[in-house]
Design goal:
Length: 185
């Protein structure tokens, strides 16, 4: 084995040049990995969007019945409601907005519901009336809808005061416990 005192200056320079080459190769591979990850994210996004649209298309006709069963008459259901800033940029999008004289219910539709989805929707609800001042006089409630949701996510969403709508066979059902009281924003 070579000790530090036995390494010549030329050997040290060669080792440093070798490390520099290895570093360049590592950088090149990382850039290639990043490129592949971005391409995969784009592909998954294209896959996720049709699934989310499928959920929205499945939930839209059901919300009238579901919310009427909850004691909230439904006058309008508006899909893909967007708020834009002065430059035309979308600042908020609501998958389904359910409206009547006194209430507005903002529904977020997902193929598979996660706690992160619930948290993002809660943030959206907190900013809703600023983004949509035309609905500022409404009692705002939130709902999440999904093809599937683990029980712990359903209970988490319910504890946050959200209606939880989930596919059951060929129907959509409200998964909230009896006596559930929705949060009002």
């Amino acid at each position: 084995m070579t000790t530090a005192t036995e390494i010549s200056w030329d050997d040290l320079k060669a080792m440093i040049l070798g490390l520099a080459e290895q570093s360049k190769e590592t950088d090149r591979r990382m850039q290639e990995t990043d490129r592949r990850i971005r391409a995969l994210e784009r592909q998954l996004g294209r896959l996720g969007n049709p699934l989310g649209q499928f959920v929205q298309d499945m939930v839209e006709p059901a919300v009238v019945r579901l919310f009427q069963e909850q004691g909230i008459p439904v006058h309008r259901v508006m899909p893909n409601v967007r708020a834009r800033d002065d430059t035309g940029q979308t600042v908020m999008e609501i998958d389904l907005l359910v409206i009547n004289g006194d209430h507005a219910i903002a529904v977020e539709c997902k193929s598979r519901l996660t706690t992160d989805d619930v948290d993002e929707h809660l943030e959206r609800l907190a900013c809703f009336k600023a983004a949509f001042p035309e609905f500022a006089d409404k009692l705002l409630h939130g709902a999440v809808a999904a093809m599937g949701a683990p029980d712990e996510v359903v209970r988490y969403a319910e504890k946050q005061g959200l209606y939880v709508l989930v596919q059951a066979d060929d129907d959509v059902v409200v998964c909230n416990q009896p006596g559930f009281t929705p949060r009002t924003w």
